[in-house]
Specification:
Layout: H1 2-9, E1 23-26, E2 31-40, E3 43-50, E4 53-60, E5 64-68, E6 74-76, H2 84-96, E7 105-109, E8 114-123, E9 127-132, E10 137-141, E11 145-149, E12 155-157, H3 161-170, H4 172-178, H5 252-276, H6 283-294, E13 302-305, E14 314-317, H7 318-326, E15 332-348, E16 354-367, E17 374-394, E18 402-415
Antiparallel strand pairs: 1-2, 1-5, 2-3, 3-4, 5-6, 7-8, 7-11, 8-9, 9-10, 11-12, 13-14, 15-16, 16-17, 17-18
Helix pairs in contact: 1-3, 5-6
Length: 418
């Protein structure tokens, strides 16, 4: 039940906050006015509103906790189907549907856990006066409540999320019943039914194009900060010989897959940065991370860097940049890229390769020995060039012959002027 999972997910919502607009809660504690609009492989697409302007970017699923509709319905990002086609259908259904308005509020008591169906008449910082479902007047101290779910879709947490989760789990069935009034739609706040994938129509016309299950046509080594398991960089395949004027092109399905792969490659690069700066790891592991990251870049790629302590912009070769990161004086660091999106979509150039430009917001934080005091922090907008380079892979089968493959490479990283 999505409502139940919601309570455990929103660990960073203000205990006194009241929200009744399209809102997305991020894992880093930020809250964005906006909504989920699509799926790109393992990532989700977000349309957010800032300073009155709408912008679209994509993010890894784990960076987002929950999206809340203006009518109070919730969709937990981690609940989305792993199949991109089905996940897209779930997001479309969530954005399209509307909840039937309840005529009552729900007061969630903490101990003993119970749900009160009420019509709130008055609310202060200490108490809630309400009309009970039996028709009588009543009052309750807010210290007894874990949460309030208002009839207009707003919500308020009054206890730490762990206590709210305990209360919700104790009255799961009752909450589900009360969040699903009679004669409402089947998709409600309490129970969002996952739609099934559309079947191809007869006559050969496909309704849905399902992306390939593989992440990429080349082997991709995933890198996790908490448990780094690095593998040697793959040998660079032989470049395509220019023996014909006919340039290989991507099918629509391939284009969408490689478009997503390029975004994932940026994520992998950021994960490598956090390994390189992690002083709890030995030098061998950190050096392997440097070597692996270098294998993802075009030759002579550069990085523009700036610092609050040192005015101006410097340009470093990617190898020098990574080695300098390893030597930073902070006891620990955290590097994060958010709001990762395409500035220029992948477009085929005269050389037959595809080029695009991705940007994101980089947050860098350096900590002292106790791991809590911040010694340095900055936020910069950065862009990174991406390239899909074609090559031919020889197959042992004489029938197959040489097949055109593509690999994702990263290029220059620049600072974006605000």
């Amino acid at each position: 039940m999505r409502l139940i999972l919601l309570i455990g997910s929103i660990v960073l919502i203000s205990l006194s906050g009241l929200y009744a607009q399209e809102t997305i809660y991020l894992a880093n504690g930020n809250r964005l006015p906006g909504r989920l609009t699509g799926v790109e492989g393992e990532r989700v697409r977000v349309t957010a509103v800032r300073n009155g302007k709408s912008s679209t970017f994509s993010s890894r699923r784990e960076n987002l906790l929950v999206t809340v509709a203006a009518d109070g319905r919730f969709l937990i990002v981690s609940d989305l189907d792993q199949d991109p086609v089905k996940a897209q259908q779930e997001i479309d259904a969530f954005n399209k549907d509307e909840a039937s308005r309840r005529t009552y509020d729900l007061l969630l008591k903490a101990s003993p856990a119970s749900v009160i169906q009420a019509q709130i008449q008055y609310e202060s910082d200490e108490v809630v006066n309400y009309k009970a479902s039996t028709g009588g007047a009543a009052s309750i101290n807010k210290r007894e409540l874990a949460a309030i779910f208002y009839r207009d879709g707003r919500h308020k947490l009054l206890m730490p999320p762990a206590a709210v989760v305990t209360a919700v789990n104790s009255v799961r069935g009752e909450l589900k019943r009360l969040f699903t009034p009679p004669a409402t739609k089947s998709v409600t706040v309490a129970n969002v039914t996952k739609p099934t994938a559309a079947k191809p129509a007869k006559g050969g016309v496909k309704q849905v194009v399902k992306l390939p299950a593989t992440k990429s046509s080349e082997a991709v080594v995933k890198t996790e900060v908490s448990k780094p398991k690095l593998e040697p960089s793959l040998p660079k395949p032989q470049a395509v010989e220019t023996t014909t004027d006919v340039k290989p092109t991507l099918t629509e399905a391939q284009y969408q897959q490689y478009r997503s792969d390029a975004l994932n490659r940026v994520d992998q690069f950021v994960a490598c940065l956090n390994i390189i700066t992690n002083k709890e790891l030995d030098d061998t592991q950190r050096d392997k991370a440097i070597d692996q990251a270098l294998g993802w870049f075009m030759p002579d790629a550069t990085v523009e860097v700036s610092s609050i302590k040192r005015p101006g912009v410097r340009k470093l070769k990617i190898g020098d940049y990574l080695r300098k990161l390893k030597l930073l004086p902070y006891a620990s660091t955290a590097i994060e890229w958010t709001e990762v999106q395409y500035v220029s979509e992948l477009t085929q150039a005269a050389d037959g390769n595809y080029y695009g430009l991705i940007k994101g917001q980089q947050t860098f934080t350096g900590y002292s020995e106790n791991g809590q005091d911040v010694m340095y922090s900055d936020v910069t907008e950065k862009s990174i060039k991406v390239k899909l380079e074609s090559y031919r892979k020889s197959d042992e089968s004489e029938v197959t012959g040489k097949e055109v493959k593509w690999r994702v490479l990263l290029g220059n990283i620049g600072l974006v002027d605000k």
